[in-house]
Amino acid sequence: MQSELTADIEPIRFVGQTDGTLELLDQTRLPVELTVIRCSDVETVWEAIKKLRVRGAPAIGIAAAYGVVVGLQTVGDEDAAAFWKRLDEVTDYLAGSRPTAVNLFWALDRMKRVAHQLRDAGQSIAEIRTALVAEAKTIHAEDRDTCRAIGRHGADELKGAANFLTHCNAGGLATAEYGTALAVFFTLQDDGKDLHVFVDETRPLLQGARLTAWELAQRKIRATLICDSMAAQVMREGRVDAIVTGADRIAANGDSANKIGTYSLAVLAKAHGIPFYIAAPISTFDMAIDSGDEIPIEERASEEITHGFGKQTAPEGIGVYNPAFDVTPAELIQGIITERGVISPVTTEMVAKMFAAE
Amino acid sequence: MQSELTADIEPIRFVGQTDGTLELLDQTRLPVELTVIRCSDVETVWEAIKKLRVRGAPAIGIAAAYGVVVGLQTVGDEDAAAFWKRLDEVTDYLAGSRPTAVNLFWALDRMKRVAHQLRDAGQSIAEIRTALVAEAKTIHAEDRDTCRAIGRHGADELKGAANFLTHCNAGGLATAEYGTALAVFFTLQDDGKDLHVFVDETRPLLQGARLTAWELAQRKIRATLICDSMAAQVMREGRVDAIVTGADRIAANGDSANKIGTYSLAVLAKAHGIPFYIAAPISTFDMAIDSGDEIPIEERASEEITHGFGKQTAPEGIGVYNPAFDVTPAELIQGIITERGVISPVTTEMVAKMFAAE
């Protein structure tokens, strides 16, 4: 069930209440086609997560929470045993869609916990069902608020800048609405600022070209796509006031793992005297690891480089190194923009202070 | 007329004498297919240059010189007027194949000059025809010698290094046999050194992935393909002792224009304490320009980035910046490896000294 979206694009939208439908923007079709998947059964949600039609840790968690609501629609309110059996079925099933996605398990656990608490409190199946819709909407709203707060703090920090560069996609497609790095740009725009953003295409999977360029164009922010190797040149030309990227995991000392190529940008930024920022929610911090040295670098399939988009562009059997991430050391980061404020300078002490704040 | 090449690959080969045939390795088919174009008429040579089946300034000059020989085969030795008319026809025709290729005009002029000198000296058409084959072979041999000498000087300079990184394609495919940057690696291998080379894929046109990776694999040099954005990461991992690239144009002070991404590598190399070298023949120096500031940066079509794999990967109408080259300032270059020796430190005085040497 797919159709054209015309205006007011939201990557994740739940329409209705307990009998509602989850609508997901199919990110695998972007930027060439704008297709919405209407999920009125849990299998469609599962497939969308599995096939990366919805991607980004927060977005996956939100989709899974709504997926629970949709999955429970196959059983009525009158048969409690069937309802509880179905809840286990649905959450187990969705948990198998992307076995390494932490936000997925977190959201499913949260939905189950709410259901069990209300059962223990003697509420009816109908009441529990209503509460689950509310809980999914709360997860969605919390993420929206987090992104908005990151955007607000970032825009305040960077109100003197107008020319930006970003890498990969830390935008609304990966989260609810505003994203993390892109939230800074969206908020500056809301503040009436005329800004320009260079977008690294982000090889090998081109999230910058496919997703970030699309999001910026969608919001009519002036954007220029470049190859990753051109970032140094635009810095040298004096066309970048600040660099902002997202992060996948941040150590207790502020060392930040993000899409491969981020470290390169941070080194180049320093050489050109340009401040480099990370924008990420507090949930990205892994306080159990002291520094980035403890973050393992995932290597991905060589075909992502040798067969970009289905066409062979390198000789058969050539050796390939394809690290998915790199780690930018804290000393290269001017500030980490969180929903609680900006951590700057980036030190173990300052991270601990922000982490402890509410 | 195409067939499989099996062993002992030479990108440009002339088989026979005045009635000979030019064989060109079709670089547009690499690395997936190994196809040789047999040129027994000048139209096939013209098409090969035009369609980039043969590319790289020296290689184009060599192909054009042999193209003159092939083109003259349509007229016999008995009709002098027809011969001279045909010589003009053929050289004008070939000159139109790539109107911006300086080596092309240089080689064609050199062939015509030899013919006219011998005519003035009273030689017969048959003798002139034989001399033209010899002249084309001399152009070819001179370039081979230049590349070999660059390789020798580079291998002496870098004999303490084993782990390299290179960008784009400065190899045998662009020249006769050994190339420039790759000549250093080939010569180190000839010296019995066990070396490893990281190859930047070199977006947008992927010359590293398509050509350099292929050339190194062909010679069984251990090579690992990476995306351009991964170069900083392999430097940080301590896996690069030196970086060597080619150059397209070098100013009198040593500032070097080369494929976009080269400047980025030079900045990253400095930050990691890794020496960065340029390998290029003396003919690459443009002594008429004092510094790199005077080198205009060519911008190429946006489709190279937005439709890079024959597939649209960026939103319709997005702004694109696609500089073909960047300029690496002399102070970031440890040495420029030429056929006459290594210029180091890279200063206006040292460049002038090497330029004046024989």
Automatic annotation (TrEMBL), chains A, B:
HAMAP family listed in its UniProt record: Salvage_MtnA
Annotated site location: Transition state stabilizer: 168
EC number(s) from the headed UniProt entry: 5.3.1.23
Gene assigned in the entry: mtnA
Role this protein plays: Catalyzes the interconversion of methylthioribose-1-phosphate (MTR-1-P) into methylthioribulose-1-phosphate (MTRu-1-P).
Pathway(s): Amino-acid biosynthesis; L-methionine biosynthesis via salvage pathway; L-methionine from S-methyl-5-thio-alpha-D-ribose 1-phosphate: step 1/6
Domain of life according to the entry: Bacteria
Top EC category: isomerase
InterPro entries hit by this protein: IF-2B-related, IF-M1Pi, IF_2B-like_C, Initiation_fac_2B_a/b/d, M1Pi_N, NagB/RpiA_transferase-like
Catalytic machinery residues: 248
Annotated family: Belongs to the EIF-2B alpha/beta/delta subunits family. MtnA subfamily.
Residues that hold substrate according to the record: 55-57, 98, 207, 258-259
UniProt cross-references to Gene3D superfamilies, sorted A to Z: translation initiation factor eif-2b, domain 1 (1.20.120.420), Translation initiation factor eif-2b, domain 2 (3.40.50.10470)
Catalytically driven reaction(s): 5-(methylsulfanyl)-alpha-D-ribose 1-phosphate = 5-(methylsulfanyl)-D-ribulose 1-phosphate
Protein name as catalogued: Methylthioribose-1-phosphate isomerase
The entry's keywords: Amino-acid biosynthesis, Isomerase, Methionine biosynthesis
Any Gene Ontology biological process: L-methionine salvage from methylthioadenosine
Species in which this protein is naturally found: Blastopirellula retiformator
GO MF annotation, one: S-methyl-5-thioribose-1-phosphate isomerase activity
